[in-house]
Amino acid sequence: MLTMIDAVQKDVAQLHTCLSPEVRSAHVPPFITRDIPHCGHIAPSFIRTPRHRSFRRKKDFKHATSGISSTNAGHKEPQTEEISVPNNIDLQGLPQLCFPGELQIETEPKEDHYHFLVFTDVFGARTYGVVVQFYRSIQEGNSFQNGQAHWDAAVQKSRMSLYAPFSICVISKFPYFTAFKDSLSCLTMQVKSCHQVDFDHKVHEFAAKLALVPSPPPGTLHLVFNLKPLQIILPSKEDPKYPTVDLNLHIPFLCFKPECILKILTCFLIEQRIVLLSADWALLTLVAECFILYLHPLQWQHTYVPILSKGMMDFLMAPTAFLMGCHIDYFNNINSEIEGLILVNIDDGTIKSSDLPDIKIDVPEIPLEAAECFIQRTESLQLYYDLELSHLGSSTDISELRMRRREWQQNLNFQIQQISLELMVNIFREVSDFLNYEYRVFNSEEFLKTRTNSDRSFYKKVLETYIFHSFLKARLSGKMDAFSYAELTSCSENDRGKMLASPRRPTMEEMAMKRERNSDFFMIKRLVASMPNLPVDTLHDFSIVHRSTGKNKHENALKKSMKSTRFKLPEFSCPLTYSSVIEWYTEFAILLSKAMSSTGPENSSLLARYYYLRGLAYLMQEKFQEALSDFQNLYKTDRDIFPKELVKKVIGAMSPAQRKHASRKPELKRLISIMLEKEGDMTASDEHVKTFQLPKTHMHQDDFLKRIQESGIVKDVDTILRLFDALTIGHLKQIDPETFKDFYNFWKESETEAQEVNLPLEVIERLDKNECVYKLSSSVKTNYGVGKIALTQKRLFLLIEGRPGYVEIAKFRDILELENISVMFFPLRIPALKIKTTHKEPFIGNLKNERDLWLLIVKEMWAGRKMADKHKDPQYIQQALTNVLLMDAVVGCMQSPRAIYAASRLAYFDRMKNMVLPKTTSETLKHKVNPSAGQTSPQAVNALLYTPGHLVHLEEDENANPILWCALSEGKVVLFNAKTWSIQQHCIQVGNSKLNCMLAVEFSQVWVGSQDSSVYIINAHSMSCNKQLTEHFSDVTDMVLEDKGSKFSQKQVYSCSLDGRVICWDVHTLEIKTNFQLSNCHKLTSIKLHNSMLWCCIGDALLEVKKNGQLLRKVTLQENPKGSYVQFSSFLVFLEENQLVTACADKGEVYIWDLKYLSQPLQKIQLQACNSIICMIRVKNQLWIGGKVSDKMRGKIYVVDTIKCRVEKELVAHVDMVRALCSIEDRYVISGGGKEDGKVAIWNVG
Question: Where is the UDENN domain positioned along the sequence (predicted)?
Fold first, then answer.
């Protein structure tokens, strides 16, 4: 919307009388309407029908007569046309915002002045305005009333030059402050001196041109249009996760010191009543917007009025949090009359609270480490553009100068966004450690306990705010915004591992850092206090690097992505008519098509932006089918910018005939069916954030399970059930609130004590950097000396008292025997624990009444270590630690003779330590990992994929490591570093359904087939999914890559779905090359490519077909002459041997066929005790077969020698069926278990 406002004065003779502004005209799109009123079925939501109209507000009045003052003339009430404007724009209040200061007639023109407005509706949606104030010449002989000039002959002889103030305001839902400022600069050049007759026409024409320009989608494509003499750039968001930025983000850094900026940000975070003050109206909004952008992705959701006019000053009396701005002239009045305000003086660069003696505002300091990191990072910013020009020659091209300045500003804005985002991540990084995602619980009390004393007051205030509550809702909903991405990319592998570890304790590395900070901090601060100019770069060096969001690595990568592309819009024609507007959009679409033809498929991100814009252009031409096709292509290029709601409206606006015609294209038929699906049946997601509260009633098993999971103590269901059994020993099977409270408090006290453990540096140096102290005994006498016994995940050691000392007692894997003994200390016999090891004399500790508990603890850790070594599964140690700490808490809360017996019910590994693992399995098994770590229950591993390190990446790139991809249920893909077997990325979300198959395509893509009938494409560089192929209509079950090896041949992928459809995709363009439907097929489970022919498994048969679907051969096998056909689950084609290998779905039989003679199999291999085969791969001369055995769905792997056709090994490592297999360079085989197991095993290939 564009409004023009002028000033009204009753008596022009009194030049210094204040004027009253009023709306002269308002122009609201659509500006151009259809010439022919009836031309088919048109949706009013999209076609430019006259819902709104450009109007001019008119008033009837009497002409002033000669010699008679207008104040003496008779006056009629003005007759005003009914007008239509956006709901959140108040035309009556708009004039005083466009002229927030005093107005008067001037005798000489003043310089144009720009400022910026923000309007907020009742739902919190913001609309933005850019205002220009300028002066137009009038004559003293003209009576200037109601926006019109009138002849006054009596004063014509003594004519003098007078100038009246005018204002034009452009209003948009997008914050294009710079673009609209540049646009208004072009307009004011034309309207300052034009005739009155042309004035409104030029303004209307200007508004109509702006209305044609679409807003660019997120990405690096900026739009450029010509308004003469300037080229206007309409910038896009750099990323969908970031807001639009079209202003200079470094303005606050020119006004305030970094420490002051941090103080102001604290006021935002604790939701104070903030007032910005300046003599420059423009700075009020710009500075306010900058601070709001610094907070991103946290959002200011309270009252926001960046400019208050004189008549709006009573807004400052509002009792709730707000952000407002007013002129510096009101500073003294506000400071002395209104209590509880934070006054931010932009002109002086200061911040203070209002001077009322009864009210003092406590603004805490921002957390120290985050503040130090922010200050150091801001010191590297180059804030002065002139310094960038010092080595450059003078440019004679204004466009080049503007472009150079914009690129510099864009780069600086990016750096400031990164620094401010890093600040938010450093402040709130550890919040996720105290979230329970399943039950949407935030344990605020425990979070506060872990904060340092100096930071606790800050967090206490922030945790009570609405801004933080909204932030929590986004975290618990799994929102992948800028914060989530920065938090993820800045985590080291150790950090990611610790995020899944439960229970968590400070590692030796963290203890060392803490000691270093404590010892250095006060010394450095004293030096800084005595020498204020001394830099503090050495403060928190390690911490700052550790908590940085990857400045060097990620910033360089993102800078490359910031290289923007500018697309020039067609020139605007004059005058604008309906036909000329259609021609403009037609030319727009043609230019986009030309740009697309010159853009290669490798630049899919840019292609997506072109598709998006061309879809809009077609939409404005009423070419609905073409628009839908372009929007459909966004799935293949960048689904993140797919305009779902817009497409729904387009489909709803189409006539039945149009919709039927569009449905003839399979991809559009699929799109239309998806968009028309009702979402009303879907249950709304719970966005409520809960605070953990202790129960107040007795709990049975199910309620206890829920309460423990809510508390965050344990997630594993089986462990919680054992805990319930332990706490209810000798009672009815229910737990009273008092017992739960005692247990919970003891657990949390133990956590707190572990956080406060302060080991001497000599001890820290003797332990591994990732070791944690989980329990300390009381001071006891031992044969190694007097001290406290300490337990870590790897060993027991004695912390010598009196002098700092460390004596290792035993590593758990070295323990030979544990024994309860009594030591004679006349006249008493003191209970003691004896530990025999392989390396030294037995350890004897006089533990007294702690002995029985420590015996349980050490036995469980010993058993856990033995199980971990035997099963090559390090998670057993973590589970044993959990059991040990639960034992400790049970004994601590029960305080009764039966406490030790109750705790023994939690000794899971001590009971399982004698479980026999077959020797062959133990020798072949290399390692185990758990993709379901951190979940309440395991998830089936449905597909596995190995990708080698990307040689094209830089060495420091984390993704250069080989990666193991694990596809789980509910659309989750978990990644492991295949060198260290540590977790690489917790989860890439691709839809919400079961994932059936994965395929590596080139270095940069991984394709994932889903049960929701889509193929998702993951970018292996960014580890994100923004492409989706939706042409299948049933579960995507398998994919195969055709690579002819020639650099001139195009790679193709064949995908199949359960309903028998096979689609061939061009890898580069993602276009369908061919597709066919297998007749009478309802169970197509897998496909293979052999000698340019496709082999398809359809359950009871294997089909050999040409690439066009023509059937060549069919392979079936009858169980008996009159029986049904054998059901095949999987198959392989041996190229060299020219053989076909098939596996049965309902029994343990493998058949080998000669590809030339498929009437009967050559040989049958019987797998002992196997009742179903799930998967099968070939590695060297071995056939690895995964299936399930008859006893309780247990999984087994059979290794078959393909030459001798016999089973060489039977491997048992999964408690559920083996659902997936893959190989790593013929050196290792990876297997994935079913939902009862959920683990991945790595096997050595013999």
Answer: 54-482
